[in-house]
Amino acid sequence: MAAQNLQSVPAELTPEEDAAGQAHFDRIIAEDSRIEPRDWMPAAYRKTLLRQVSQHAHSEIIGMQPEANWISRAPSLKRKAILMAKVQDEAGHGLYLYSAAETLGQSRDKMMDDLIAGKARYSSIFNYPALTWADMGAIGWLVDGAAICNQVPLCRASYGPYGRAMVRICKEESFHQRQGFEILLELSNGTPEQKQMAQDAVNRWYAPALMMFGPPDDDSPNSKQSMAWNIKRFSNDELRSRFVGMMVEQVRVLGLTLPDDQIRFNEDTRKWEHGPLDWDEFHEVLAGRGPCNAQRLERRRAAHDDGAWVREAAAAYADKQRAKQSAKQQKEYAA
Amino acid sequence: MSPHGNPDAPASSATEINREAPNASPKVEAAPEAGPAVDHHDRSTWGLWEVFVRSSRGLSHVHAGSLHAPDAAMALRNARDLYTRRNEGVSIWVVPADAIAASDPDSKGSFFESPQGKDYRHATYYTKSEGVKHL
Ligand SMILES: [Fe+2]
Ligand SMILES: [Fe+2]
């Protein structure tokens, strides 16, 4: 399998060239500069990035589903148009990231096959159901909000194509969070039933959103290496704490509450703290046993299969045009 | 791999998609990175295109990213949908990735002429005219 071959060193490189490559790589990382696709890089760096970037791409693609399900039921034409634009953005994010992953030597087709075959991972958050219209608000505000918190530092990731994809993505994400906030704000200022619906959605998405930052630092063995390579700039807990601080402020504007009575600002550490999270649930969902895992993969598989005839038709048409073109050229050449 | 700095031997066919990645051999799958160039005639794998966008009149086209498409017309349409959803461009170029020749990334210092001792190529080298107006 290609992914395994990634660990091996290309045959044509001698140990001296490897040592020179490593020295060059170390210097670039020390200068906080960027590694580009054709640079020598350690096999483990390539493997780590390929895993992270492809999982990130899969998350964007699967992440379209909870919201796409609500497009036909959006309460107004305006909300429908907004939701369609957001879902289209997420498709774009997936494609930017697949391109970045491809520069590491894995084909997009292979990555997509892995996703459909259930061999690849994606963010656990998208395996929770979106039960009401208010969930569109909570997803935009909390899920895209957490994603932004995670992604802004990734704009400075040491791997050039990844950083560039993140810059593009971050520019588009801010509208995602704002439209979600607006949905919640409108519901919160609506009837008591609407306000209750908004509160219920926040209650359900709060903890899963916090878990998007990954396991606690002492249970995140790869974080340290990722930070040493300048891929990650801040630890999981650090980013989670920052996110909680921002949400505490914003939830007041919404007139809602966060379902966590242990949130407090620690004056000694100068950090926000929150109540315990159910990490068993996190690992269960990640392992494929969440409420919607099967449904999400099934939908992705069906979409891929349903689109097969379009891909085939486009390729057949392109072949035909090329054949025509070369016949014409040969005729002109002969004449 | 081309010798460092040899301008007659391009380091690669092009593009950021690394087809010389360590998994290139042995060739086990018909993955685009495995061969020297993407086969645009392969029905299962659409070719890779690099996208350049002119953000407004008077500016150059700038590399925006890449995408897969079966032909140029589809590549242009995909590029429009993928890279200009918010009026980011007034013109798009798409180029088959394998049609771009690239310099060797390691050749900094040999392929690229050394700037050492060549300060006189910059205006800041000439200090005697300081204080003289419009110079
Ligand atoms: Fe996204
Ligand atoms: Fe988003």
Structure overview:
The complex is a heterodimer of chains A (335) and B (135). Chain A has 335 residues and is mainly alpha-helical. Chain A contains 14 helices and 2 strands. In chain A, a hairpin with a 4-residue loop joins strand 1 (264-266) and strand 2. Chain A is globular. Chain B has 135 residues and is mainly beta. Chain B contains 1 helix and 3 strands, in the order ββαβ. Chain B has a 3-stranded antiparallel β-sheet, with helices on one face. In chain B, a hairpin with a 6-residue loop joins strand 1 and strand 2 (61-69). The longest helix of chain B is centred in the middle third of the chain and has 12 residues, at 72-83. The N and C termini of chain B lie far apart (47 Å). The relative contact order of chain B is 0.20. Mean pLDDT of chain B is 73; it is low at 1-14 and 19-43. Chains A and B meet through helix 1, helix 5, helix 6, helix 8 and helix 14 of A and strand 2 and helix 1 of B. Bound molecules: fe (ii) ion (2 copies). One fe (ii) ion (FE2) binds at residues 60, 90, 93, 169, 173 of chain A. The site of one fe (ii) ion has 5 residues of chain A, from helix 7 and helix 8.
Describe the protein's topology.
The complex is a heterodimer of chains A (335) and B (135).
Chain A: H1 2-5, H2 15-30, H3 43-62, H4 64-71, H5 77-102, H6 108-116, H7 134-154, H8 160-188, H9 192-211, H10 223-228, H11 236-254, E1 264-266, E2 271-273, H12 279-289, H13 293-306, H14 308-334
Antiparallel strand pairs in A: 1-2
Helix pairs in contact in A: 3-5, 4-5, 5-8, 7-8, 7-9, 7-11, 8-9
Chain B: E1 47-54, E2 61-69, H1 72-83, E3 91-96
Antiparallel strand pairs in B: 1-2, 1-3
The complex binds fe (ii) ion (2 copies).
The site of one fe (ii) ion (FE2) has 5 residues of chain A, from helix 7 and helix 8.
